[in-house]
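Title: Request for sanity check on Ribosomal protein L37AE/L43A prediction

Description:
We are preparing a figure and want to confirm that the structure record we downloaded matches what your pipeline produces today. Could someone re-run it with the sequence below and paste the raw structure tokens into this thread? We only need the token string, no images.
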Amino acid sequence: MYQKNCEICHRASYSSSEVGKWICPICGNDLTNQPFFDAMTFERIHIKTVPLHRKLKKYQK
Ligand SMILES: [Zn+2]
């Protein structure tokens, strides 16, 4: 579970996916480029966003 903090309304939102767009459910702000935090430990997670087509290639091996 991931958490991102909105810089506009200062609310946290949660998601289980690190891919795709992340829009603040409160104010609609685009949080896609905000850093990920672990929802349990609140530690910052460094995720390199991998383009979807590269991920699919990996799975085909
Ligand atoms: Zn917001």
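Thanks, this matches our download. The beta strands are 2-5, 12-15, 36-38, 44-45.
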